[in-house]
Structure formats: C-alpha cells, structure tokens
Amino acid sequence: MADQTLFEKYGGFSAVSRVVLDFYDRLLDSDEIGPFFDDTEMSKLVDHQTKFIASLLGGPSSYSDDHLKQLHTHLDIKNEHLDEMKAVLAKTLLDHGFAEDDTETVMGELEARRGIIVG
C-alpha cells in the first residue's frame, strides 16, 4: 500500500477548507494579524490559503517559491507575525483532529518557507 499523504489522511480539500475557514476566523480576531486582512477579499484569500495548506499536507496544489514570494512581498510580514500565525494554525489543526506529530510536520513545512514569506 502506497504511503498516504496528510492531505489524504485528513480528508482532502473539503477538510482543509473547513480548517482554513476556522483559521481565518481566529486570525481576524488577532490584534497583530487581523489588520493584514482589512482590505483583503477574503473569499479569494481563503481559496489561496486552502490550496497552500493542501500543498503543505502533500496535496495536489503547490506553489513555487517565486509565487509565494510574489504573494507576500508587498506585505510587511515580520517574524513575530509568522510566529503568531503558526501558533494559530497549529491550534486550529489540533482542534480539527490533527495528531500532534502531523501538526508538527505541517509547521515544519511552513517554517521551511519562512525566508520567503517574511519580508
């Protein structure tokens, strides 16, 4: 039997979409992170983030480093912003039934992209 990706293990796009919707509800409540989305079309962002999180889980969507940089370069994202975002995402994943080791795997994938996301 082939190895199952985390994307497959946790139910594919429908499950990732539920996680991302909850994740953004939590981020919008953050005094530090919430203002980043004041002028953002949330449906478009949720779609983008669903594909990005799916790719972190080994799903079919993926973003090149250049594409990620292009999406984040106009934002003034600092290390503390990414740290808070990671903490909120980790809590969201755990609350949606992700195992701790799988959550750590996702956090590691996100951490590997820190230099691309943080400006």
Automatic annotation (TrEMBL):
<keyword id="KW-0479">Metal-binding</keyword>
<dbReference type="Pfam" id="PF01152">
    <property type="entry name" value="Bac_globin"/>
</dbReference>
<keyword id="KW-0349">Heme</keyword>
<protein>
    <submittedName>
        <fullName>Group 1 truncated hemoglobin</fullName>
    </submittedName>
</protein>
<keyword id="KW-0408">Iron</keyword>
<dbReference type="InterPro" id="IPR001486">
    <property type="entry name" value="Hemoglobin_trunc"/>
</dbReference>
<dbReference type="InterPro" id="IPR012292">
    <property type="entry name" value="Globin/Proto"/>
</dbReference>
<keyword id="KW-0813">Transport</keyword>
<dbReference type="InterPro" id="IPR009050">
    <property type="entry name" value="Globin-like_sf"/>
</dbReference>
